[in-house]
Amino acid sequence: MRRKERYIAGNHWIISDISGQKIRIQDAEADWRGYWMERDNFSPKEKQLTIIPRQETIAIRGARIQNIDETLQDPPFNPATGAI
Prior knowledge:
mainly beta, two-stranded antiparallel ribbon, 1 helix, 6% helix, 14% strand
């Protein structure tokens, strides 16, 4: 015979998203993905999953800018010799 479940105010039942078992909300915890699970199955979010983009604060003083015309020109090609 099944025992009668007692009502506890503010402590309702939920279904675990990992195991599928019925557990009390006081024994459950939500992980970073929003899944409800038992506290013994809980694992915190990995640090590698949180990447915070940061701007570089180091600037190079007196940097020389290359002339764009010189860097984008094709080298001279001689079709007779096939050499550059």
